[in-house]
Inverse folding.
């Protein structure tokens, strides 16, 4: 399950003090956990399609906010968002190699 793998990765990145990866993983874990809670109420489990959908949504959200940050002159925040997109895409390639990222 993706959630367990991300939790393991979170520990690794915390040890290496990789801030962007840690914050991104925490957010993804939170989103996956929320989806798990939502589906448990309906007696279902999180599918790989749900997991992929969450990753794609996070990429989409960041890609939408990057131009806003750039327009507002917040280049540091825009760069952080770009790095998060790259990291999520890396995770997608690792866990969903047959899917096209974006």
């Amino acid at each position: 399950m993706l959630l367990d793998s991300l939790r393991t990765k979170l520990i690794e990145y915390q040890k290496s003090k990789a801030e962007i990866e840690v914050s991104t993983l925490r957010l993804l874990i939170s989103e996956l956990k929320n989806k798990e809670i939502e589906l448990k109420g309906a007696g279902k489990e999180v599918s790989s399609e749900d997991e992929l959908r969450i990753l794609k949504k996070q990429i989409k959200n960041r890609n939408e906010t990057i131009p806003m940050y750039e327009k507002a002159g917040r280049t540091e925040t825009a760069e952080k968002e770009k790095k998060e997109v790259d990291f999520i895409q890396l995770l997608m390639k690792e866990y969903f190699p047959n899917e096209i990222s974006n």
